[in-house]
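Re-run with default settings, no changes from the original entry. Doing this only to confirm the output is reproducible before filing.
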Amino acid sequence: MAADLFRVVRTLPSGPVILATGPIPRDVAMARFREMAIEWRMDRVRVVREQDYQAGRASR
């Protein structure tokens, strides 16, 4: 079974979501999240499981 992949996404104040990373392993995603949270403020950055991200895109 393959490990889940994750994406780090940034939400802009106006609403759109911007991808900050492609699909990456969880430990790498968490490290990138910590870096980005400092740069972009914690409330605008989150880690999303790749499968959930793709499901959300399909429903738009």
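Residues 5 and 51 are 8 Å apart (CA to CA). Helices lie at 26-40, 50-58.
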